[in-house]
Amino acid sequence: MTTLTSPPGGAAIRHPAPPATTGRTGTPRQGGTILALPALVWYAVFMIGPVIAIFVIAALHWPGMLQPVSFAGLGNVRTVLDDPVFWDAVRNTAVQLAVALPIMIVCAYMLGYYVAQKPPGHRVIRYLLFIPGLISTPAKAMVFYAALSPDGLANGALQSVGLGSLTDAWLASPSTALACLIALDVWSGIGFTAVLFAARLDSVPDDLGEAAQLDGAGHWRTMWRIHFPVIRDYVGVVTMLQFLWTLFGSAQHVLLLTQGGPGSSSTTLSFLVYQKAFIAADLGYSQTVGVILFLAGLVGLLAIRRAFRQNY
């Protein structure tokens, strides 16, 4: 409503009334909380709940799903730390991350930068890079098995060029089994990661690159000295995603190609969790390794976040 005031000797002036207040300033915020409640309940039950269950089961002696359960305390930790297979898995996982992650991120960034420059056929290149992400894991494993088996494509190619002495049973050799798994990890993730980098680099203003080239900088310096600092935080996010995928998702490649062998030469921590839970039926041991894997992932994420944080 409005009010009328009449100054002395003048016409009435119409003033708008102040807006009505209800005294419930928190209503929009409360409504947002109510809308988010189903998602919060889902997250608590299916995300936080399993994490708590991992720590609980790690303290139990549980020799199988239908077997009696007893409290083990720190007994599972001592068993895991005294097991040489566990330390082989730690070494293999460390090698896998130290080799696969830098190669994947650096090569994917360079490919993404090239695609972001929009060369001839860049749209087709984007689709070709994305193809490994569209292939199921069993299909990718079969491709690598066909290429690396004793009578596969790799040995056939070596024999055809007169290098038959270099042929090997790649997946069955302790010296090459882990390297084959690392190659599969890199091939699986590099194209998808390159497409992500290209999409992010497309949003960088063209003026930055043009100004650098006018100052005499080539593509190499422009790529690493101009564009990389701009998307440094995004590189950190992608690195964290690939770190988690390599750390936790390598079990399926090991299961399909090497079964952790020969011996334990290609056993990783994530595969050891599966092996102890579903093959050895030692759930306490399995989830103790799961706790160690969880803590390793948390520390790795914090380290990557710190390494790629912006300096301004």
Question: Which properties best describe this structure?
Answer:
312 residues, two-stranded antiparallel ribbon, two-stranded antiparallel sheet, 12 helices, 4 strands, 68% helix, globular, Sugar ABC transporter permease, transmembrane, UgpAE/MalFG_permease, cell membrane, MetI-like
Write a structural description:
With 312 residues, this protein is mainly α. It has 12 helices and 4 strands; from the N terminus they run E-E-H-E-E-H-H-H-H-H-H-H-H-H-H-H. The strands form 2 sheets. It has a two-stranded antiparallel ribbon. A hairpin with an 8-residue loop joins strand 3 and strand 4. Helix 7 packs antiparallel against helix 10 and helix 10 runs parallel beside helix 11. The longest helix has 33 residues. The model has no long low-confidence stretch (mean pLDDT 86). Belongs to the binding-protein-dependent transport system permease family. Keywords: Cell membrane, Membrane, Transmembrane, Transmembrane helix, Transport. It holds the Pfam family BPD_transp_1. Its main location: membrane. This is Sugar ABC transporter permease.
Helix count equals 12
The overall pLDDT, averaged over residues, is 86
Order of helices and strands: EEHEEHHHHHHHHHHH
- Helical content (DSSP H or I, runs of 4+): 55-70%
Major β-sheet, in short? 2 strands, antiparallel
Estimate what percentage of residues fall within beta strands: under 5%
Shape: globular
Helix/strand-derived class?
A: mainly alpha
The strand count comes to 4
Distance between the termini: 51 Å
The main sheet orders its strands as 1-2
Radius of gyration: 29 Å
Q: Which residue ranges are poorly predicted, with pLDDT under 50 across at least 5 consecutive positions?
A: none
Subcellular location: Cell membrane
Domain ABC transmembrane type-1: 90-304
Protein name: Sugar ABC transporter permease
Main location: membrane
